[in-house]
Amino acid sequence: MRSSITKALTLGLITTLVAACANIGRPDGGPYDETPPVMLGSTPAPGATGVHSKRVKIEFDEYINIENASEKIVVSPPQQRQPVIEAVGKHININFEDTLRDSTTYTIDFSDAIVDNNEANPLENFVFTFSTGDVIDTMEVSGAVLNAENLEPVKGMLVGLYSDLADSAFTTKKMERIGRTDSRGRFCIKGIKPGQYRIYALNDNDQNYMFSQKSENLAFLDSVIIPSSFPDVRYDTTWVDTVTIDTIIKVDYTHFVPDDIVLKAFQEDYKTQTLLKNDRADKRKFTLYFNTHADSLPQIEGLNFDTTDAFIIEPSAKNDTISYWLRDSLIYNVDTLRLAVTYTTTDSLARPVKVTDTINTVTKKTFERKSRRRDKDEEEQVIPSLSVNLESLTATFDGYKDITAVFEHPLASYDREAMHIMIKADSTYDEIPFNFLPDTSHVRTYLWVANWEAGREYKLTVDSGTIRSIYGLTNKRIDRSFKIRAIEEYGMIVFNIKGLDGQPAYAELLNKNDSPIRKVTVEDGEAVFNYLPAGEYYARLCIDTNNNGEWDTGNYEEKRQAEEVFYYNAIIDLKAMWTIEQDWDLHAIPADKQKPLDITKQKPEVRKKKTRTRTYQGN
Question: Which region ranges are annotated with the description Disordered (predicted)?
Fold first, then answer.
């Protein structure tokens, strides 16, 4: 034991001294090393066959380091126990922990992980290959992995091949050949035997090289791929400087295909619905919070009160937060309400089942109310009113919008005749027709809907006591003046969509943060955006397969891809009074080249050049 420790310490000391010697500075003003390391030789030789040793040693012309080995180095076929790969002086030593497989091509793809010790100049795209059999398998396939929802390149995702074409292989067997995506989402899998394969991408959380957890992001191609190659020619350019071409060189090479695979990654809708908590900050309302969305509302049974017509339900858009407004004071004045909440979840086999949770919902104001009771008679009594949020109604209003009012509580009644919308005509105001309508998606939201005239001034008035909540509170008087934007302040964008093939779709305009600011349904191959302020816009389109107006993820077991998304490849600079009409062929540009770089968050990584300062000393 003592001998082993001594050897380890000695090796560590030697390594440290070697590294220190390799980093000795050059004289001030001397030339800088900008040349990457060069491989001088290896054991076994590159491309060797009949290899049985589990050790590989690669020699370089200078001292080297390995950067971000776990992120950049990919060993294929995948290993149960990862090889030990280390840089020692001018060598890289690789020790395989797993037993080498018979008649198998091994590739160790270093990407740009190998750098020289002085200036960290990378050796780009370095791959070491050997075979335990008689031949080296040389086929390659390449492509990109994108986020299915927003076409962002996905970095660090595992991509693998199966010669077993059964759908179950991805969930029961390890990948046979693998690669990993870089910062551009690009991947390349090398050392492939001729044949037919299925290809998958996986965010392999448990590192078992198969899709085994619903939380793992995945991607799959519907079709089988057949790797092949052919001789090809490319032209490389050398430059005198950044603007002057030196030489154009014709290069013969082997072109491996397919090299344009696009995999679109998604996470399945896998979460099992669970009731997280309940809240009753206002005694007249309790709220249930679930961990994920649901297709239907839970069933509520009152254990110490009658739930028949007891409340007005206010669900969130995804039914994951649900408020219940209690109508009856005999119920909401009870400090603790006991409920049985029945909702749908899944069992261990992912089958839908009903579960019932029994909860107590306690008003938070119980103790606060008791502590204030003795001072209540001394306080000046203030008659409460029904508050209303009219934040959407700004002094300058967009003519394509409705006036939105969000009330403090659900409404019981209102007097339509006591509401007025008037348009200014010279020095007087004339009444115009309008509708006051409930928003079908939001219980406490109502809309004033009218035909607005651009550039005109309006006034909205609502008499006090006109609107009454279910708790008997009424509104204060509303008196708001506003002006509709002039038509000269707007522009319009029209997309003529090609490639839909009759499928339902919606289009969105995006800002520079890739966030949607306007959505329209595509009708008769057109996406029309009216009343747009001048500015810069981007656009994307979603094939809305189930016609629900939102993007839906995929499911591997059902062999259902996520709904397809396309990006318009350019920025649109809209000026006031302009109408921009654009043809948009959804399939004209490959998916991995559609999204403008300006709004792509996962930018390609570029090595930063070192700032080098020379110091000259006088005599």
Answer: 595-619
Spatial separation of the C-alpha atoms in residues 282 and 305, rounded to whole Å: 18
State the pLDDT at residue 379. Answer: 53
- Domain-ending residue, one of 325, 342, 369: 369
Percent of the chain with pLDDT over 70: 90
Of 292, 302, 299, 267, nearest in space to 346 by CA: 292
Among the listed ranges 182-186, 382-386, 394-398, 551-555, which one has the minimum average pLDDT value?
382-386
437-481, pLDDT tens digit by residue?
A: 999 999 999 999 999 999 999 999 999 999 999 999 999 999 999
What's the rounded Cα separation, in Å, for the pair 189 and 193?
11
Whether residue 304 lies inside any domain: the answer is: yes
The answer for residues whose C-beta is within 8 angstroms of residue 556's C-beta and 6 or more apart is 170, 171, 211, 218, 220, 268
Structure tokens at 73: 């180095």
The residue-averaged pLDDT of 277-305 equals 95
Confidence (pLDDT) at 373:
54
Q: Check: CB of residue 439 under 8 Å from CB of residue 446.
A: yes
C-alpha 10: how far from chain center: 49
Task: Tell me which of 103, 131, 159 is where a domain ends.
Answer: 131
CA dihedral 381, 382, 383, 387 (to 10 degrees): -150
> What integer pLDDT is reported at residue 589 of this predicted model?
98
Which structure tokens are listed for 253?
């090479």
Q: What tokens does 176 get? A: 């046979």
481 in the same domain as 507:
no
Report yes or no on 603 lying in a domain.
no
Q: What does the pLDDT average to over 515-543? A: 97
How far is residue 59 from each of residues 10, 44, 121, measured CA to CA in Å?
22, 11, 16
Shortest CA distance to 594 belongs to which of 543, 520, 552, 538?
A: 538
Which of 67, 37, 60, 66 lies closest to 605, judged by CA?
A: 67
10 band by pLDDT with thresholds 50, 70 and 90: very low
Residue 612 has pLDDT above 80, yes or no: no
Give domain status of residue 602, yes or no.
no
582 CB contacts (<8 Å, ≥6 apart)? 493, 494, 495, 496, 568, 572
CATH number of the domain bearing residue 418: 2.60.40.3710
Average pLDDT value for residue range 168-181: 97
Q: Is residue 594 part of a domain?
A: no
- Residue 196: domain span: 139-265
Burial pattern 181-191, b for ≥16 Cβ within 10 A else e, equals bbebbbbbbbb
Q: Tell me which amino acid residue 396 is.
A: T
Same domain, residue pair 517 and 577: yes
Q: Mean pLDDT in the chain?
A: 90
Pairing of strands 139-147, 261-265: parallel
- Res. 20: pLDDT tops 70: no
The C-alpha atoms of residue 529 and residue 496 are separated, in whole angstroms, by: 12
Burial of 81 (0-12, 13-18, 19+ CB in 10 A): exposed
Specify the DSSP element, H or E, that contains 17: helix 2-22
pLDDT, residue 346, reads 84
